[in-house]
Amino acid sequence: xxxxxxxxxxxxxxxxxxxxxxxxxxxxxxxxxxxxxxxxxxxxxxxxxxxxxxxxxxxxxxxxxxxxxxxxxxxxxxxxxxxxxxxxxxxxxxxxxxxxxxxxxxxxxxxxxxxxxxxxxxxxxxxxxxxxxxxxxxxxxxxxxxxxxxxxxxxxxxxxxxxxxxxxxxxxxxxxxxxxxxxxxxxxxxxxxxxxxxxxxxxxxxxxxxxxxxxxxxxxxxxxxxxxxxxxxxxxxxxxxxxxxxxxxxxxxxxxxxxxxxxxxxxxxxxxxxxxxxx
Length: 279
Ligand code: IPD
Ligand code: CA
Ligand code: CA
Prior knowledge:
The termini are far apart. By secondary structure, this protein is of the alpha+beta class. The chain has 8 helices and 14 strands. Residues 55, 78, 95, 97-98, 100 line the site of one calcium ion.
């Protein structure tokens, strides 16, 4: 695989493997998408949490090769059965199908997300836009790219009022009052517009690509951001929690922006949370 990275880049095999697996899993998912209605299984009795045969098939495809090529790497993957504690500080965060609700409804917005972190730092990221067949990838110190053709660059928007932001809501939203609705209601009149795409991985890829100016969401899992963090950072953006502290996998507050609107967005999120009594 011919990639625009330095010859001594240390995670080349991990990067080429992740790109190839994301594309293979993407092809598998696209095939099921094109064939029509999907069989949906509700997880744990929560109708807001669903899984399909494509999620499990894509994960099995990905894990088989990761197990074989990187036997000492840890794995945290969304669909059960794949998790393995790491031994050398290297951990893969894998979402085999991000945007399952869209996929299950035939809405063409879903992705495959693979991120390798080593000793708490993101090193390799791949987000495959399944329907548009685009591969967004990043390698630490080597930039963020789309299909190795175009280097990604975050937007130059400086005002929150001119920003297009994305967000999402936790699956516990019916049971928990602190469910992002207060932040959503507060921010929506303050910005150009807001999107709820249904794929956190694509939201982050689109921030990296300058299509959106920022993204915030509470309660994401490590596999939702495992790849997106490095895409945004390598494209010149900023990632943090709501206090502006560095994000670590498993963190429950997530904000990724072009950097220029970051502080203003954090301030409005905190204001909304304070008004709602959550701060
Ligand atoms: C979901 C999507 C969605 C986000 C949810 C995630 P899944 O992932 O990324 O955009 O709002 O929080 O759980 O379940 O489709 O892999
Ligand atoms: Ca996900
Ligand atoms: Ca998923």
